[in-house]
Amino acid sequence: MLGEILNTYYLQIGSFILINIMLAISVYVPLSSGQLSLGSAGFMGVGAYTSALLTIHFDLPIVIGIIAGALAASILGVIVGIPSLRLSGVYLAIATLGLGEVIRVIFVNWDTLTKGSVGLTGIPQLGREILEFARGLGFEPAMIGIKNNQFVFLSIFIVLLTLVIVILWFVVRQQNSRVGRALSSINQDDKAAESMGINITYYKVISFTQGAFFAGLAGALFAHVIGYISPADFSYHRAVEVLIFTVFGGSEVIIGSVFGAFFLTLMPEVLRFVSEFRYIIYGILLIVLMAVRPQGILDANLLKKIKIKRSKGGVR
Amino acid sequence: MVLEVKNITKNFGGISALKDVSFSINKGEIFGLIGPNGAGKTTMFNMITNIYEPTSGEIIFHGENITGIKPYKITEKGICRTYQNIRLFSQMSTLHNVMVGGHSQSQSGVFSSVFRTKAQRTEEQQLIKKSEELLELVGLLEHKDTIAENLAYGQQRRLEIARALASNPSLLLLDEPAAGMNEKETDSLYDLIKTVQSRGITVLIIEHDMPLVMKLCDRITVLNFGEKLAEGTPEEIQNNEAVIEAYLGKEEDEVDA
Amino acid sequence: MLLEQIINGITLGSIYAIIALGFTLVFGVLGIINMAHGEIFMVGAFVGVTTTGVLGWPLWMAFIAAIVVTSILGYLLERFTLRPLRGKKGVSHLAPLISTIGVSILLENLSHHIFGAGNKPFNTPFSEISINIGSITVYLVQIVIFVISILLMIGLTVWLSKTKAGKALRATADNLETASILGVDTKKIIILTVVVASAIGGIAGILVGMAFNSVSPQMGLSMGLKGLAIIILGGMGNVKGAMVGGLILGLSETMLVAYGDSGYRDAIAFIMIIVILLLRPQGIFGSKVSQERR
């Protein structure tokens, strides 16, 4: 029965949505302390290449590779984050965009390691490893009535979903705490925040690095889900796409990033019947949205209204 | 002695905003800093909290030289301020504004916040309790969930004071707290500052409302064009020829009108 | 050989400078980064290809056509994406960035539809003509590009410093509120700024087409990114800085390709700005004031 419901195409789109949610959060977190970072694509690339190279060349387990990838991205985040503190607003945006471009060009040119613009193939795939692992424990997909490739896609989806839930839990908890209030106060008035005893350097580096970590994690997972990466996956277009997820959904609230990534990943699939024009529609959508609702689709006010409506409904 | 300001000079591109200004404040005092617009009063606040570093001179706080240390560390040492142009965290609730003020009085980090350790929960509870007390003190407890920018002007000024008090300062700097307030609000501000003093907090206040300053302050320093013109009790200042000429005569006309 | 490379570098640099001018004018007056500038420039290049190649017009008419089309685009950009955001409460600095990105996506994909994905050659009647001075070869195209660029820069500088509209523009860039109190019609000046910046982009588009003999819908992006790097290099909103920054980038790219690793050519611009941002955040020519305005 399960075998008939599970559509691998939908599972795959679901997985892409989850990876994109992670990326959107990687923009949201630095932004919550007032730092507009366009480095997500670059950090994603560092995570992806680190994990891919480690698992291909040193036969490391995928889990270790993914953790190493995310850590490599966050180390780069610290290295870049500290000097970047002197920059704000558009300066930081362009500098991080530039960082992403430099990283991409290095991937293209460091032939011996990265295979240049051709990219890396034969990256161990997460779903297959899980399948083998399960088989090692004496489990066969047929036992729950699904085919092997259905199991592969399903297991990837479940792993990603779990990770996204953990990340959301982490970010929301952090937000509703002393750390979150410090980040938000820096975002609203950094000078006043500093005179309230907040070490803005520390908190800015923390949030910038967390962003790099999430992007690196998403990149490493991306590599092991797709099995093939090239520098083009981490270009300017990716950086802009991720920024748009966050801003479109609403950059003031975390649910905005989730919604933005969900909606905008799904939209091109839904718009397949006009596939030729979908990017034109996408462009127009952005222009109209910013003119009508510059804070993004979701914001604190709208969420409040929805909550009130719901609680009223609940009383009845 | 709580604060000693020693020979502070500040030049901005060749123009002296402060020239060799010195004064010292005793524990428990309400100390007034007055002078015409552009006399360098707010610049002096920025020197004490090190938003700008002085060109020369020293700031001694409880016997420790704090010149040039980071602003957030100065707050940790016990100096907190309000701003002439209100600088609240305008999108946060009233309560959260005060809780940010309590940042230096708490220490939960990322780990304990995410895992909600027992210490973190206790600390958070205490911070909320203390913040609510402060909101009650300034008369804003019923507005604790209001977003700061939706508060009335006078309420915003009082919230800034509560936020500063949350850092548990031994010296509170108030930059024109009565600006834009009506008579009734000014009266309750007077009571508030007196209450603050009764809690053992030393207050340094910049204010243009002369009747309030004269009623409130134990001692006053007058600045004019970046230089110290006079210092003394309110009576001495009111009778000082130089002060009357430079400042009070003109200013009192405005106040009366 | 070195001299020839320097000439190549200056030619490339003067084009970069002109692209950067478009960014810097808009940033100076409106304080925003026009992410669609690269695509407006690309449209200018396609107008050049179509008018000279398909319609067989002379080059000077191609320039006029490009200026007209990009000016109209500039007006539409201001009217429909920038104006709705101006003076609205709760608009963050992200909003104009995103909406101009929207325009860039729209223009890139529209051109893709109309002109196809590949590179289009841009033939000029004198593309093969060259002059030999000793061992150095200089192409006539290079001289034309250089002369037009210089004329454009001089023209813009004179316009900004001598004419009434130019002075009003500078006043608005300095402080929008003060300018409007002093009786400057800032709404008109903002439209003028975006239109002039776009027209300059259109001219740059033809020059790039001539220089590389190729035009594609993707060229807006790579040139746009370099333009961004240059205005940081030279100082945001600084006209002189954009010119010098462009020349520096053009020369360093040419030298790298000639004597170093050409693969890193597209990274130089950003390596330079990362270094510059860390050493001197206000740019080479930026003043402290312009830094505070950001």
Strand portion of chain A, in percent?
under 5%
Low-confidence stretches of chain A: none
Total number of domains of chain C: 1
Coarse structural class of chain A: mainly alpha
- State the end-to-end distance of chain C: 43 Å
Oligomer: heterotrimer
Task: Estimate the mean pLDDT confidence of chain C.
Answer: 84
User: How does the overall form of chain A come out from the CA principal axes?
Assistant: globular
Annotation field: number of helices of chain A = 15
Number of strands of chain A: 0
Structural commentary:
The complex is a heterotrimer of chains A (316), B (257) and C (294). The mean pLDDT of chain A is 89. Chain A has one domain. The two termini of chain A are 38 Å apart. Chain A is mostly helical and 316 residues long. Chain B has two domains: 166 residues, 3-Layer(aba) Sandwich (Rossmann fold), CATH 3.40.50; 77 residues, no CATH class. Helix content of chain B is 41%, strand content 23%. Chain B is built from ten helices and ten strands. In chain B, strands 6-7-8-3-9-10 form a six-stranded mixed β-sheet, sandwiched between helices. A four-stranded antiparallel β-sheet of chain B has the order 2-1-4-5, with helices on one face. In chain B, helix 3 packs across helix 5, helix 3 packs parallel to helix 6 and helix 5 crosses helix 6. Chain B is globular and about 60 Å long. Chain B starts with a strand and ends with a helix. Chain C has 294 residues and is mainly alpha-helical. Helix content of chain C is 74%, strand content 3%. Chain C contains twelve helices and two strands. The radius of gyration of chain C is 19 Å and the shape is globular. The C terminus of chain C is likely disordered. Chains A and C meet through helix 5, helix 12 and helix 14 of A and helix 4, helix 9 and helix 11 of C.
